[in-house]
Design a protein that fits this description.
By secondary structure, the protein is α+β, with helices and mostly antiparallel strands. It has 2 domains: 7-76, no CATH class; 78-132 and 144-175, no CATH class. 40% of the residues lie in helices and 19% in strands. The chain is built from 7 helices and 7 strands; from the N terminus they run βαααβββααααβββ. The protein has a 4-stranded antiparallel beta sheet with strand order 1-4-3-2. Strands 5-6-7 form a 3-stranded antiparallel beta sheet. Helix 5 (94-104) runs antiparallel to helix 6 (110-119). The radius of gyration is 17 Å and the shape is globular. Bound molecules: zinc ion. Residues 88, 91, 118, 121, 123-124 line the site of zinc ion. One of its GO terms (molecular function) is RNA-directed DNA polymerase activity.
């Protein structure tokens, strides 16, 4: 997937978290546009940013204010960078991070986002130069949900979310 959509598996969704994603969805300009189009008509001509959604129109659904793409919940942009940060945890380097992302989550422009993250990170750069001798970083996967949490802030201007990501499920909790 190369488009601007970010999804999470349905089995990682709790009712509580879904409610927070629903709140963030309401704040998300793009997702609101998609919602409007789903409820009435898709604009013609279709805007480029709506294209990935329009192409999969038949697979899109709304449930309790959350958008679903097949069995996956569409994660609003506000939460995406936090999940990207989580994937970067432990400075796995470019290749490992891409592999992780592919098996765990679906991220828009995934390779580009990851390349940018790694490029900006000195630790990951080090890892690249040592890659020939050093063993590949092994990403420690927590045994249970909530064993390890990552907390960060996301937002803009004077508005901030506190974002908590469970390291195992990648489940985001969003606090206002
Ligand atoms: Zn790094």
């Amino acid at each position: 997937m190369d488009e601007d959509v970010f999804v999470i598996d349905e089995d990682q969704i709790t009712e509580f978290s879904a409610r927070k994603v629903a709140v963030a969805t309401r704040w998300d300009k793009l997702l609101c546009q998609v919602l409007r189009a789903m409820n009435s008509n898709w604009p013609n001509p279709i805007e480029k940013k709506l294209e990935p959604f329009h192409k999969r129109e038949s697979e899109l659904a709304i449930e309790n204010g959350c958008m679903f793409w097949g069995s996956k919940m569409v994660i609003p942009k506000e939460l995406q960078s936090a999940v990207l940060c989580e994937l970067h945890e432990g400075n796995p380097g470019m290749t490992k991070m891409k592999n992780l992302a592919r098996t765990r989550v679906l991220l828009p422009n995934m390779d580009r986002e990851i390349e940018e993250t790694v490029r900006k990170c000195l630790h990951c750069q080090d890892q690249r130069s040592e890659a020939a001798q050093a063993p590949v970083h092994s990403w420690e996967f927590p045994a249970k949900p909530w064993n390890r949490l990552h907390i960060d802030f996301a937002g803009h201007n004077d508005f901030h979310w506190k974002v908590i990501i469970d390291a195992r499920t990648k489940w985001p909790e969003l606090l206002l």
